[in-house]
Known about the structure:
alpha/beta; TIM Barrel; 2 domains; 8-stranded parallel beta sheet; 6-stranded antiparallel barrel; 23% strand; elongated
Amino acid sequence: MVWAVVKANAYGHGIANAYEGLRGADGFALLDLDEAQQLRTLGWRGPILLLEGAFETRDLELCSRLKLWHAVHCEQQIDWLAMHKTHEPHRVFLKLNSGMNRLGFSATAFRAAWTRLNALPQVDEISLMTHFSDADALRSGSDGIQHQLDVFEAVCADLPGERSLSNSAATLRHSQRVHSDWVRAGIMSYGGVPDYPEHGPEHWDLRPAMTLRSKIIGVQHLQAGDTVGYGSSFTATQAMRIGTVACGYADGYPRHVPSGSPILVDGQRTTTVGRVSMDMLAVDLSALPGTGFNSEVTLWGQGPKGQVLPIDEVAKAAGTIGYELMCALAKRVPVTVQHLE
């Protein structure tokens, strides 16, 4: 079964925008109670999992009202459940810290936590979960997931309940080795590649769900020695034709993308020029005859004729990951939803 992970407002895509495309999943997983309420308002009646569980006692009241499943990763959450008055017991996912060292019970404390939960009348079924830290690649000197799989199996082998282990990276890379009842499809649901640059989207047959596009709003002709943008960080070594794009870091395009980073103009590859400004950036049009004022610019995603500029490629140029670029899309950017077959 598949959890469609829609935390961070569906990775910046908007839960309402992504809902129709993801409602074929078996359930939705997220962090925020307001987002869980939004899913119920949209009509979802199936499972919703709070990946970090309750943050305070009163959250459990909403879990009861909205029929939310929730993670339990610490003793305080078990204490809250023990005090919670509910007519219907809760479905919980007990989290094991198998090596990520972020959330979850240690291997030595896990079974005692399971025993406490199992004794509570407020708890119905207990599922078991963990999270891989290195499923996207091999950890130096060790198999990327085996050390955590070994911990999980040692602690949970004889415990009942459904399992949820695999994130996007483990689902794509380790499906033959990891056997669980629920997978958590996060970045892969939006066309992002968890193990880029080892693999591109075409390797995993992924298509971008988000395209950031704009237009050329001005053209400049440079001579050798002319500079571009704040700080004059780019100096032309020969005659050039550059275009100014109506997009900048206030829109979510990262300021730290260096000059020479990939971009599409009318579907053709070229590069950025100089420093990204708040509302604008420059691109090299010298080798793209026929482009100019009003030409379409694809900053990442699907080009006008099917070309793709992977968000992960832009993110790598910026020294970050595609997740951050998706989540950083600014509210001022107008969003159009297109349903593809």
